[in-house]
From TrEMBL:
Record-given protein name: Galectin
Signal sequence, renumbered to the chain: none
Pfam families: Gal-bind_lectin (PF00337)
Every Galectin domain range: 43-189, 218-336
PROSITE patterns for this protein: GALECTIN (PS51304)
SUPFAM superfamilies hit by this protein: Concanavalin A-like lectins/glucanases
Domain of life: Eukaryota
Coiled coil: none
Database matches in Gene3D superfamilies: 2.60.120.200
Cited InterPro entries: ConA-like_dom_sf (IPR013320), Galectin-like (IPR044156), Galectin_CRD (IPR001079)
Alphabetical UniProt keywords: Lectin
Residue spans crossing the bilayer: none
Length: 336
């Protein structure tokens, strides 16, 4: 693909925003260790495509062992805290509206989280959630799962709170992180579109900090085959001058019942049967050079958007024994 070749416009909801590791570099380049005396906040970033129901934001970080030294004697002993704001813009003056303000205060006698909305420069009625499980010096993982009328928040794998929107979710386009926190990683994920009426946090979306790059071709065994409803998640980065990408499922006799193939030559995506018959998938071609991707099948979801499906009966699924991935990609995660 030439540098000046025109690319078809892609809907914002198809774009997978790449994760950010240590937003401001505080790593010692010789030892690879994080300098815990330095802080990486405030950190403000644009949310690709804005927020909408079905999107999830993941935050990995560490509560510092010691609060930052306060310059004012009146503030020197104030409790350590941080906040995560989902903002309607990023201007400094006037201060933007904040649709969801998440503010853990974890060095008080009773650690808790304050949730609120800032509208027109005025804070609305705050909601207090006690019992937050954050400890000084300890790592944490916080998930923000956005739904039609509320956001759900889990801390270290356990549901913690829900908060009803007071501003339209469609106005949110900026994430801001402030206060006493060491940010390890920020991730943006689109949810599996095939599970309707979801009320739980999605499974199959681990966010792996410092994930080593996997070798390609990549093979994964399926000792018990697959089952209906099971999700396979593949995350990677398309190379700068790609040729093709394939994901195939094989049974115990090395027979290949189905293959998903992306061709960069003619920019097509297709299911290929065991006898070579190709079934084109009618959808935008989303594998672009230097762009991250995430997919799951046998119903195909690329960057969280449903694209197409192929059929295998339950017996054929149970007989599958190998998942094999080849092509012009850097591979970071294969999860099932």
């Amino acid at each position: 693909m030439s540098a000046d070749e025109h690319l078809d416009p892609i809907p914002d909801s198809f774009i997978l925003q790449p994760p950010v590791f240590h937003p401001v570099s505080r790593l010692n380049t010789e030892t690879g260790q994080l300098n815990s005396k330095l802080h990486v906040v405030p950190y403000v970033t644009t949310i690709f495509g804005g927020l909408y129901a079905g999107k999830m934001v993941m935050l990995q970080g560490v509560v510092p062992l010691h609060a930052r030294r306060r310059t004012s004697p009146k503030l020197r002993n104030t409790p350590t805290r941080f906040q995560v704001d989902f903002q309607c813009g990023c201007c400094l003056h006037p201060r933007p509206d904040i649709a969801f303000h998440f503010n853990p205060r974890f060095y008080t006698v009773k650690p808790h989280v304050i949730c609120n909305t800032l509208q027109g420069g005025l804070w609305q009625k705050e909601v207090r959630w006690p019992g937050v499980t954050l400890q000084k010096g300890a790592s944490f993982l916080i998930l923000f799962l956005f739904e039609n009328e509320e956001v759900k928040v889990s801390v270290n794998g356990q549901h913690f709170l829900h908060f009803c929107y007071q501003l339209p979710l469609s106005r949110v386009d900026t994430l801001g992180i402030y206060g006493d926190i060491l940010v390890k990683a920020v991730g943006f994920l689109n949810i599996n579109p095939f599970v309707e009426g979801r009320r739980e946090y999605p499974v199959g979306y681990p966010f792996l900090l410092y994930s080593p790059r996997l070798e390609v071709p990549c093979s994964r065994t399926l000792p018990q085959g697959l089952r209906p409803g099971q999700v396979i998640v593949v995350r990677g980065l398309v190379l700068q001058e790609p040729k093709d990408f394939t994901l195939s499922l094989r049974n115990g006799t090395t027979h290949v019942p189905v293959t998903l193939r992306a061709s960069f030559t003619d920019r097509t995506l297709a299911w290929v049967s065991s006898w070579g018959r190709k079934k084109l998938i009618s959808a935008p071609f989303l594998f672009y050079p230097q762009r991250f991707f995430e997919e799951g099948g046998l119903k195909l979801a690329l960057n969280g958007q449903g694209l197409g499906a192929t059929s295998l009966n339950q017996k054929a699924l149970e007989q599958l024994r190998e998942l094999r991935i080849t092509g012009s990609v850097h591979l970071y995660c294969v999860h099932y």
